[in-house]
Every structure is written in C-alpha cells, then in structure tokens.
Design brief:
It is built from eight helices and nine strands. The termini are close together. Helices cover 46% and strands 27% of the residues. Helix 5 packs across helix 8 (204-219) and helix 6 (148-177) crosses helix 8 (204-219). The protein has two domains: 2-134 and 221-227, Sandwich (Substrate Binding Domain Of DNAk, Chain A, domain 1), CATH 2.60.34; 136-214. The longest helix has 30 residues, at 148-177. The strands form two sheets. A five-stranded mixed beta sheet has the order 1-4-9-8-5, with helices on one face. A four-stranded antiparallel beta sheet has the order 3-2-6-7. It is α+β, with helices and mostly antiparallel strands and 228 residues long.
Length: 228
Amino acid sequence: MKLTASGGTDGATMVLFWPANLPDDADQLLRDDPIALFEKLDGEGKLIYFPCEGDGGYTLSLYLHEDVPAELAAFCREHRKYPHLLVSGEGYFGGGECVFKRDAGFIEKYKHMAGKVTVPDETYDAVVHSTDVPRSFYASWLRKHAGPSAKRAGDAYGVMWGFIVGGVLATLFGLFLMPWKFWFLFAGGTAALVAATVALSRSAAYKKVVAAREEFARAFPTYVVRLK
C-alpha cells in the first residue's frame, strides 16, 4: 500500500509524528526546546525527524509492506533505519511547528502545513530515504508530461516573477532617486508585467504545467519511508 502526504515548514524542520506517541508534557516541551524533543523521540522510534534544507513545501511517500518502485528507488538515498518504529493512532507529516499533543488548532488553521498519514497501529521496521532527482530529469519529465509549450509557459512565469520583484524594488527606491517621468515609466512597466503574469497564470498551458508539477511531486517525493 502506498500513502502520500505533503506539508510545509517555516522553521526548516519536517517530521512524521503521532500525537499519541508524545509524552504528556509535550506541549510544554515543544515551547521550551522542540528540537531536543524531536531528537529524543526520533531516537526512541516514536517519530521521524527528516533532514531539511530550509523553509518551504515537502512531499512524502510511504510504502507499507511494499517495495519502492524501481524508477523512484533509483533516486533514493538512505537516510536512516528504524528497527522499531511505533505507530499509534493518526499520524501527520508536516513542519516542526505543527507538532502537538492535544491541540491541533495550528494544523486546522493552516491545513497546507501538514498532511494526515493513516497507518495501522503496529511496531514497524522502517527505512527512510531522501531523494536526489537531477534537474535535467525533472525538466525532461515536465516536457514529456505537460508538453513543450506548457513547460515554456511555466519557465516564463518564473522569470516574469523575478522581473516583477526587481521592478517593485526599483520602483520603491526610484521614488527618491529617479526623475518623475522615468519613475512613472518604470511603475507602469511593472504594473503591465504583473497583469501579463496574472493572465499567464490563468492560461491552459500554465495550468497544465502546474498539474504536471503536482503529479511529479507525488511520483518523486522529497522523502520515502518503507515500512515492514
């Protein structure tokens, strides 16, 4: 059986956790020193504390009594083995700021920050992998599944947003440094670029590449967990 989940972090910390596995005083410990608690519970096989490169969104695929597909396994790098991983109740994959013992208010408010992972209660032999997918493979996969024109639309969208950020900053500083006629030209150009970018985001080609990116994230997640 394959399970998937997505989550995000603003604290460069991702975990797969089960509230039932946390100690009774977890809410206080999470306020005092969450990393110490994560490391302790990770060492005890009560949660999985993932390597994390920074803030942002991450994806997880969990394979229960099933091998990882060969195409995905080719990009997997073993992170850690857990000879006795305890699964108790509803699990969550999300940022460290999402971890809770009793109050799920943060997750309920920011649903994109943590996804549910429902696995039968048991003690498992677990192997955790992180994936390393070459950018060339990703680009080739998008062209194949979304089409060359949609791939170009996605690339153009990213470039346009880069120019928008630069244009906004230049417009702000230009209030003090530019002659008014140049400032209005700059501001008008930036506004026109914003309008063009919004229009592109609503195009069929861009929506197609967005769907392909989501499909890629499910097929080649950031982390892979195998349970037996």
